Please model this.
Amino acid sequence: AQLHYSVPEDREPGFSVGDLAKDLGVEVRSLATRNLRLVSEGGQRHFRVDLAAGVLLLDSRLDREALCGQSPTCSLHLQLVMENPLQLHRVEVDVLDVNDNAPQFPKPEVVLEITEVANPGTRLPLEVAEDPDMGSNSISTYELSPSKHFALSINVRGDGVKMPEIVLEKALDREKVPVHHLTLTALDGGNPVRSGTAKVTIHVLDANDNPPVCDPPISKVLLEENVPVGTLVTKLNVTDLDEGPNGDVEYSFKTSNNAPGKFTKLFSLDAQTGEIRTKAPLDYEESSAYEIAVRARDKGSPAMEGHCHLRVELIDINDNSPEIVLTSVSSPVQEDATPGTVIALIGVKDSDSGDNGQVRLQIAKELPFKLVSSFKEHFSLVTSGPLDREKASGYNITVRAVDSGTPQRATQKSFYLRIADVNDNAPNFSSPFDTAHIQENSLPGTSVFSVSASDPDEGSNAKLSYSILDNGMQDVPISTYFRIDQDNGTIYTVRALDYEQDKVFQVPVEVKDAGSPALSSTAVVHVFVLDENDNAPNIVYPSVPKGSAFHQAIPALAEPGYLVTKIVAVDADSGHNAWLSYQLQESAEALPFQVEHRSGEIRVAQALRESEDSHRLVVLVRDNGTPSLSASVVIVISPEENSVQDFSKSLDLPQSSPEDTNLTLYLIISLVSISLVSCVMFALAAARC
Model:
């Protein structure tokens, strides 16, 4: 007999599959006696027979998916053997599917790729989910999580398997959303419905559709000049929304073949990182700013590029000292130049800028000059006061230029300004009055005195010439007595001088310079003629012819002391040379007379004898000069009776002439003048000291 049963796969062991005794038509009590036994095909024991109840029981839990896999039907075949009589019965048990398995995808995560330039409608096949259950318990449908760009499409194969596909509905932009995360759900048809999910990751493949972009496209960097070579200027911020080679950027300077940028010699660019560094010293004075163009190019195919513009502005530092330029110097300058006379034109420049380039010029305050600004960076050096070459023949002028930077820089330039002489000073004698002495009878051409004058001017203005002025003070022109060397001021005699004729001379000397106009001054040299003993004494009384004798009678009884006569003599010389002394010439016999040494009086020295005859006396008159000169007179004294002489009447002395009186007056005036001048000079010298 053929028995057919069915049992759900999820039943527990002991579940009654079927009533064998009833279905076989055998009494239950006979099953044991007939030795009913169950033989399974395939050696697996899933069932057992309860002989007491005559039923087929489930011996172990069945798993249809394990027993039959994906077979649409799942049947287990059993054989029942009974003896007495021997009978063989075939039993077929259908294992019924129960929705005990949820759909399951082969991979919990599915990674898909799609190019960002894919057109809408592009399909991405998905792997089919697996569900061991069969029939209605198998996969019924698929669901996709919501997406703006993707939708789910389910196709049915010829074998009835449903094939899920993801369909692109909206264009992609990898740069906005590079990765899309979706969830795919597989649902079976069981009750309750079971499901399985898989994460779907869709990578949007980059297409080189974005150029490199500089942020910002135009930038400015402030950089101090003279920074060390290798200093980082900036790092370009360039982004390329593409990825991979499409987003790899290389940097290069953008220059023109016809005019390559000068900045390429001063700056370096790292092609990989976009770092711009200095590769040479930067000088603000050479260029205050640099415009740098950079090309950013990706490695896509075709390559796309962007452009960055960088302006590097240098900050000036005070690295340059001011420079002084002497445009013109008027040297020498006349000492009579009026205040405000332009001496020099001075230019100044400083290559720095701003305060670093603002320059001030300075000169020493004690100088008689000042700086006047003519116009920007140009100055005039002008006189600020009177100049006097005699006080300062020149000036070392140092012009100092100082900028306003921090720290300050300064430079200086010196030049010598010579002051040209102007004939503004008259010659000046060392003394307005001088005194000289000269022996009378000196030979013509004898040097009397040398006057000396000085002139603080120079050159021809200080070239002096001397001359003697005729002022009419002498009766005879002074030039007939003296001459002067016009070059050295030495006064010489023209002829021999006679003290007895002229005792003093006033010699006016003029000194004149060679300037234009010439200036002059005068001085007076008082030349005193020194007396020489060149005149012998002259006996004026008694006056007797040469070779004759003077006869004088005296009383015969004249007593000692009686004044016989008086010898009167004069000497044209003066001083010691005119000091006269009287003496008797020695004779063989003793004379009773004597002569007063100084007065020249002849007196009776001793009483006369009555019988004495006349006496002959030789009286010598000698001066005190060297050598001494003398004169003599012979006096014959005759004693006579009743001889009385009025000596005062007979003594005829010469009277002084008016000319001698005038000469004496001149001499006194000269001595007084010289004394006064000497006092004044001594007072001035004392005041200066």
Q: What stands out?
A: Helices lie at 20-24, 28-33, 64-68, 647-650, 658-688. The first helix runs from residue 20 to 24.
